[in-house]
Amino acid sequence: MTVSLSPMTSAVSTSRGIFLPAGFGVYEASMGGASGPLGQPEQQFSDNDETELYSVSWNQDYGCFAAGTNRGFRIYNCDPFKETFRRDLKSGGFKIIEMLFRCNILALVGSKANTQYPPNKVIIWDDHQSRCIGEFSFRSEVRAVKLRRDCVVIVLEHKIYVYNFMDLKLLHQIETLANPRGLCCLSHHPNTSVLACPGLRRGQVRVEHFGLNMTKIINAHDSKIACMTLTMDGLLLATASMRGTLIRIFNTMDGTRLQEVRRGVDKADIYSIALSPNVQWLAVSSDKGTVHIFSLRVRVVGEDGSADPYAAKGPAFYDQNSSNSLGHLISPITGANTGSTLSFMKGVLPKYFSSEWSFAQLHLPECTHFIAAFGAQNTIVIIGLDGSFYRCSFDPVNGGVMVQQEYIRFLKTETRPG
């Protein structure tokens, strides 16, 4: 069955309905299979052969990540670190691999060298059944795919499509400013349904609260948006612009700017922004070869750092019917970020003298694209497009330089710019 979504724009096909989550399997170390994805035999490669790494991407809880290569894709678990699954293909590789937590459903977008699936096509693949259960085709290249348990989001350069996961019917179309990076993020808590993406003007973020049928436009920066992320419940948004000097945190309900921190003074390309699960820390990676951690003032008052911030904290935490739903998140205490000793002169000195600077730092090789996320017990996990994996710890009281605990070269890659 093929359904035309709009004339000459896109099409979706599926042989059956998709039944989620009852059919979900789990990626474990013992998983394997006799045949490769898309019905093709697996191509045997030696681990000593160099592989081109197209992309790396976290799953929704940052417990594992996917690596798209010129030969297929691989899935890795973070703690403990190990490769749990791989598919090597004869037809070519995939530039985008999007996981859905740890289940058997994947969204795949082929590379330009893939002879069977081009970059303008999205495959919804069930790896337990070894078959394609949905397929989307577009006139232009797919920039990103995001998954929730109830929807599939496909990002093109000027438009975003939102589909129902059960039947792949189109639910929403969103126009955006030119978005070559495929910027888009989703909430993943079952009680909220939030999407954030670039708006139609430079520096603008559009936030869709689908459960409330509400759209909020946030004028986040003066220059174009370079990177963004949401908390799991979608109530907080962190953004950076192409200048890469400031990271701002917003209330997605009313657009209020809650905090601003400074990565540096020089222009930088921000590769990733991560918020810790307890909303106490923010991590930023950039092309300067650094990962910065900032202390957030935006948190549940009195929340124990070791507690689950999404456990029952009272209905108000999830109540999206009030613009004051973040009232319990705003702590009156000041974060531990370093401030300038000249901040008392902020009325006459440049703005950066009164900015909040990073609490902890880590230096990595420059010119490599690294993306960071928070692990357990005050750790940061970092993956790079050079095939490297780092686990580092930071002192939550004194900050300073982070300590490297683990380094693994998970993939021998061809040399390529970050």
TrEMBL record:
**Pfam families reported in the protein's UniProt record:** PROPPIN
Localization (cell): Preautophagosomal structure membrane
Q: Give the membrane topology, semicolon-separated if more than one.
A: Peripheral membrane protein
Look up the domain of life of the source: Eukaryota
Keyword Repeat included in the entry's annotation: yes
Instruction: Alphabetically list the UniProt keywords.
Output: Repeat, WD repeat
Q: Which Gene3D superfamilies match?
A: YVTN repeat-like/Quinoprotein amine dehydrogenase
**Which is a Gene Ontology cellular component entry for this protein?**
phagophore assembly site membrane
Q: What is its main location?
A: membrane
Per its UniProt record, what SUPFAM superfamilies does this chain match?
A: WD40 repeat-like
Q: Which InterPro entries match?
A: PROPPIN, WD40/YVTN_repeat-like_dom_sf, WD40_repeat_dom_sf, WD40_rpt
Give yes or no: UniProt keyword Repeat.
yes
Membership in a protein family = Belongs to the WD repeat PROPPIN family.
What this protein is called in its record is Uncharacterized protein
The organism that produces this protein has a lineage beginning with:
Eukaryota, Viridiplantae, Streptophyta, Embryophyta, Tracheophyta
